[in-house]
Amino acid sequence: MRELLLGLSLGLGAGVTPGALLSLVITASLRGGFRAGLRLACVPLLSDLPVVLLSITAVGALPGLMVRVLSVVGGLYVVYLGVSTIREARTAKPPEPGAVEPSARRAVLHGVVVNLLNPHPWLFWIAVGAPVFTAAWGRVPASALAFVFGFYLVLCGSKVVLAWAIGAGRHRLTPGGYRILLGAAGVLLTAAGAVLMFQGVMAAPR
After folding, report:
1. Which long-range contacts (CB under 8 A, 24 or more apart) does 46-49 make?
2. Considering only CA atoms, which of 43, 40, 26, 41 is closest in space to residue 166?
3. Burial class of residue 204, CB neighbours in 10 A (0-12, 13-18, 19+)
4. How much is the pLDDT for 187?
5. Are 24 and 37 in contact (CB under 8 A)?
6. Which of 42, 39, 41 minimizes the C-alpha distance to 23?
7. Residue 98 φ/ψ region, left for φ over 0, alpha for ψ in the -120 to 50 degree band, beta for the rest
């Protein structure tokens, strides 16, 4: 129970913290509705598997240079997505009910790439997740699995709720309001990418 509660708490913090993936969920929900946002909200279930396995196996620290490179490369990619969204927002029109959704495969691929290049999941699992998991596994394996289950349940669940709220109201938006929200989502993406790049450049080597 202790590990489950810990996973739920950490997952909530990670799920609602502003960042690149959360901005992608908002953008996808505006463009394609709840189903599009749902796919992006569940991206950690795909992209985090190698992160978790490598972190639990190593239970060590990533080389400082690797973290910096991940931040800079990931930041550049997120900035590119943000600028593209801002440009689209200039002439975008609210989607009509029943309109064809944007390419699901491409959107999920963007999300997976962004998450893999984001150093935060790596640092979390190396510094927090892997030690908790291995300690719990040594006592009761079910507790370790409960920690992972609770973490991803709330991490993805909080984003699913946000996707549902945005998707439900997107058809009520005027063209001007839709462009403003889509542009704001692009600004959020660009800002998140800039933060990742700044962290990578300014991080002290170790």
Report:
1. 46/108, 46/112, 47/111, 47/112, 47/115, 47/116, 47/121, 48/115, 48/121, 48/125, 48/152
2. 26
3. exposed
4. 85
5. no
6. 41
7. left
**Whose structure tokens read 């509660």?**
5
Q: Which residues of the chain carry a pLDDT beneath 70?
A: 17-18, 58-67, 70-71, 94-103, 199, 203-206
pLDDT value of residue 96: 61
The greatest distance separating any two alpha carbons of the chain, rounded to the nearest whole angstrom, comes to 57
Helix pair angle (43-58, 20-32), 10° resolution = 160
What's residue 20's pLDDT? 80
Prediction pTM value = 0.73
- State both tokens at 164: 């549902």
CA distance 42 to 155: 9
